[in-house]
Design a protein that fits this description.
Elements: H1 4-35, H2 49-90, H3 94-110, H4 113-122, H5 126-150, H6 154-169, H7 177-186, H8 192-207, H9 211-222, H10 224-239, H11 261-295, H12 299-339, H13 345-361, H14 364-376, H15 383-407, H16 412-426, H17 431-444, H18 447-463, H19 468-471, H20 475-509, H21 515-524
């Protein structure tokens, strides 16, 4: 029974992550079917029985896939990261550390499912996007490790790199801008974050650093690399006279589906089997070579890691298949339903708020984050309070994105003030809050954001006749930005509470007749 408990726990986590959104979809379907008068919503936007059957099957796939994936991640990715991170520093070969760090950053990124989902929605070669972003993460993982070695200030480094990002963004096609920031959010996903945390802890422990602080900062820096990578892609495409697909050429996920549900499921499974192999095999092969040359783990531990890889592989296959034939099409159809008629914008805003709220409440990594914040703040920030505030902020991010798509204004009207506030706070709160805040954006923008809420926003913009690149993308960027402000603001409140408590304590210690103490000391002399 004890061996079954981890399975049951992971199934429960996956179900809690998925079922709230599934429940909302079912309610919307029933409203469409029984409560909406004929002709109010165009027939092409109504959810059919086939849509719902496909969605229900995709929910089962996602719950199973996420459970397998999480078990596999814990027993393989995290272990691989800890083993390699801990052994690299002991080699005392600086160039070996740099090369291995870069290679690991690239390989773990191309295995990230959130990135695979995002790249499939952009409309240009997926492998170009994935490998370019992988290189970006690899470079910034190296920079993050060098920061640990040389004990450099994380706040200053983030300020410099994000300043560079904002300058370069104005030199490229504006349609790429939302994609740039979305890519930074999705690359700190369920594969990358456990790997980077484990790798950072292994490096910091072997180097004698501050484990928690250094591992948090490592993930934060790796979010910058993908943004710059997409900037470079945009510059190269512009130099070659290429551009993103027009609105007319944009690929709608609904139009790609076959009326035969069985055909869609089979096609999605076969595609995912090959794509996941291309993503996971390079990282596993790299680890195997490194292990044979430098580590030589006990056979039992090595076998456990490879069993974990098998779980991770099939978990990803189920997850990505479900996204292709179920989650993404239904989300896009919902977005198009409410975007096709401006009278429904209120429904779109309300539904988006619910998706954001349920998405973050159901994300297991968010619960880990709020536990850490309560511990670091010595209980002055309660995890329940933090969870409520974070949930409201993510729901607000989705609402702001829908409003932006409706009124058609630039994403930078949100991002510039948001990042100014975030960096201003970084200079008045303890460094650990800044590190956690920049990493928590990746935690908040989990699988539900890229697989469901982003297609919903893209569908909304597409149905309005807007450019989906300008007004649909950018949702992940908003979700990733909100925790930067919220976590640091809560940290500021915590610091002020502690200072106020200390000041009140000092006041109570001062006696009204304090001069008697001085007189007593004088007599003793």
């Amino acid at each position: 029974m004890s061996k079954a408990l981890p399975w049951l726990g992971k199934i429960k986590e996956s179900a809690v992550s998925t079922l709230p959104i599934a429940f909302v979809i079912l309610v919307v379907f029933l409203i469409e079917r029984f409560a909406v008068a004929p002709g109010v919503i165009a027939d092409k936007y109504l959810m059919t029985d086939t849509d719902i059957y496909g969605f229900v099957i995709s929910v089962v796939f996602i719950i199973t896939g996420m459970a397998m994936f999480n078990i596999g991640t814990e027993t393989s990715m995290t272990e691989i990261a800890l083993v390699i991170g801990g052994s690299l520093v002991k080699k005392k070969n600086f160039f070996l550390v740099i090369f291995m760090t870069f290679a690991l950053g690239v390989l773990v990124t191309i295995a990230e499912p959130d990135l695979t989902v995002l790249s499939g929605q952009i409309g240009i070669d997926e492998q170009v996007i994935i490998w370019a972003i992988g290189v970006g993460v690899g470079i910034f993982l190296v920079i993050g490790v060098l920061r640990v070695f040389f004990h450099k200030n994380l706040n200053l480094m983030l300020l410099v790199f994000y300043g560079l990002v904002f300058l370069l963004l104005y030199l490229i096609d504006p349609r790429f801008l939302p994609i740039c920031f979305d890519s930074g959010g999705v690359t700190t996903g369920p594969v990358t974050v456990p790997f980077l945390l484990g790798f950072g802890l292994g490096i910091a422990a072997s180097h004698g650093g501050h484990g928690a602080d250094d591992s948090f900062g490592l993930t934060a820096l790796c979010s910058v690399g993908p943004i710059l990578a997409v900037v470079i892609i945009a510059a190269i495409m512009e130099g070659m006279g290429m551009e993103l697909p027009s609105i007319e050429e944009f690929v709608d996920p609904i139009s790609e589906l076959d009326p035969n549900l069985g055909h869609n499921i089979g096609h999605a499974l076969l595609t995912s089997l090959g794509n996941v192999a291309l993503s996971v095999v390079p990282l596993v092969a790299f680890f195997l070579v490194y292990e044979l040359i430098f580590i030589r783990l006990p056979l039992k531990k090595l076998l456990k890691i490879f069993i974990g890889v098998v779980f991770l592989y099939f978990g990803l296959v189920f997850f990505l298949s479900a996204v292709e034939f179920g989650f993404m099409p239904i989300a896009s159809k919902l977005g198009q339903t409410f975007g096709a008629d401006r009278d429904f914008v209120g429904f779109a805003i309300g539904l988006g708020a619910l998706f954001g709220l349920f998405g973050v409440l159901a994300e297991p990594a968010v619960h880990v984050l709020v536990d850490q914040i309560e511990t670091v703040s010595e209980g002055t920030i309660k995890k329940t309070t933090m969870l409520i505030v974070l949930s409201i902020s993510i729901g607000s991010a989705v609402v702001l994105q829908v409003i932006r798509a409706y009124f058609r204004f630039d994403l930078m009207y949100y991002l510039i003030p948001g990042y100014i506030i975030a960096f201003a706070l970084s200079f008045v709160v303890p460094h650990v809050y800044t590190a956690m805040a920049f990493d928590s954006g990746g935690v908040a923008s989990g699988p539900m954001t890229s697989t469901f809420i982003l297609p919903f926003c893209i569908g909304f913009a597409y149905a309005q006749g807007d450019d989906p690149y300008l007004y649909g993308f950018g949702l992940v960027a908003m979700v990733a930005m909100m925790p930067l402000i919220v976590v640091q603001a809560m940290g500021l409140v915590s610091v002020l509470k502690i200072k106020f408590a200390l000041r009140e304590t000092r006041k109570r210690l001062i006696e009204e007749d304090d001069d008697q103490v001085i007189h007593f000391a004088y007599e003793e002399e």
